[in-house]
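Recap from last week: sequence in, structure out.
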Amino acid sequence: MTISTDAGNNHSRQLFRSLLFIPATKLRWIGNGVSAGADALILDLEDAVAEADKPAAREALKSIRAEDHGQVQLLARMNEIHSGHLLEDIQSIVASRCTGVVVPKAESVDDLKMLISALKLIEQNSNRTRPLDVHVMLESAAGIRRAFELGSCDERVKSLMTGTIPDGDVARSVGFTPTRSGLETLYLLSHVQLEGRAAGCATYAMVSASVGHGEEEMQQKLQQARNIGYTGATLIHPSHVLAANTTFGPSDEEIKRAERVLEALEQAHSERRGAVALDGEMIDTAHGVTARATLERASEYRLTASPIN
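Predicted structure tokens:
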């Protein structure tokens, strides 16, 4: 059987506002993620799956049908490279409808290159029509320090992911004490964003909220990540998808404004004018550059923008 996806005909870069983790043993939850409006689902073969259940999780991954997820993109988080599950994980992901593999606890460029080489070899011996993207999770001090090297080691690497979740891997590795303000993690998040951008990668913040401060704290963390420049966020509960979608990516209003700016400038240029008034503001070529960048970003998020006549 040839494996393809709805996005397989267009392998240009795709950005995600929200990526929702779902255990690969709980595929019935896919519908919840789709209904919540997640841009992508990360089917987890690692932390969310007990050791004894990993073979069944890999088989479940291969059983997913197109109608199960519609237009929502599927990624799969494999087990750590040296866990002993490498080949079995890759084989199941290659044989699935997933468009990307999420690599946890990445630290070594050599290890990542080895993984990508193995991925290419298995793909060549499969019926897959689209090569898998690679998304790299930085979950240790060593991994975060090598963010640029990991992000730029191969063109398949499309994004870097890191997080500052209380009691998570990064917190244990770096040794910081989480606070509501998040000041202690500002450097870590900024470092990965800067190095990721320099490497040409999207960046995703792994965020969660503590019990008793759910909505307020989650919105604060999402907005902090957006302000720093992150592309989107990984989530562990569907109730947070809407907040992430609202926070990241151009809003409907921003898209419509950009379209109107370009329409006004096109009209002005046809009349040999360099600037034109729009909603009481003078706009010129510089505004046009910003407007085109907004629409390009909307296209990368696969957000709908009406055509400009």
